Amino acid sequence: MIVGSVQCECIIHDTHSLKEKRAVLQRVITRLKQKFNISVAETDFQDLWQRTKITIVTVTSSRKATEKELQNALKFLDSFPELERTITDIDWL
User: Fold this and answer.
1) pTM for the whole thing?
2) Which domain holds residue 38?
3) Would strands 2-12 and 51-60 be described as parallel, antiparallel, or unpaired?
4) Lesser CB count within 10 Å: N end or C end of the chain?
5) What confidence tens digit (pLDDT) does each residue in 23-79 have?
6) What is the pairing mode between strands 39-44 and 51-60?
7) Which pLDDT value is given to residue 93?
8) What are the pLDDT digits (tens) for 60-72?
9) Cβ contacts of residue 35 below 8 Å, gap of 6+?
10) Angle, to 10 degrees, between the axis of helix 18-35 and the axis of helix 63-78?
11) Is 16 helix (H, G, I), strand (E, B) or coil?
């Protein structure tokens, strides 16, 4: 069993309040969870309205499958025009 974790710092464009940020994040996180076999949460910068850190975690039977699932989730995350991924760290457990 392999656990993969990705922490992504992101800039959220065109938001002017925490309420707008939460609406964007809720949509992004919901779609990620629906499309992939992952867990997702905002893990930092909750009080800033143009910045966030999203953590994505998945568990599979092989490192290759875990890496593929995480890469697909990151590619999907990058497809949202309102987010710009700036720093990405991957950890293996």
Assistant:
1) 0.93
2) 2-92
3) antiparallel
4) N
5) 999 999 999 999 999 999 999 999 999 999 999 999 999 999 999 999 999 999 999
6) antiparallel
7) 87
8) 999 999 999 999 9
9) 73, 76
10) 140
11) coil
Q: CATH number of the domain that 43 lies in?
A: 3.30.70.1120
Q: Kindly state the DSSP code that residue 79 receives in the 8-state scheme.
A: T
3-state secondary structure the chain: CEEEEEEEEEEECCCCCHHHHHHHHHHHHHHHHHHCCCEEEEEECCCCCCEEEEEEEEEECCHHHHHHHHHHHHHHHHCCCCEEEEEEEEEEC
Q: Which two tokens stand for residue 92?
A: 């293996």
Q: What is the strand order of the sheet 51-60 is part of?
A: 39-44, 51-60, 2-12, 83-92
The domain tally of the chain equals 1
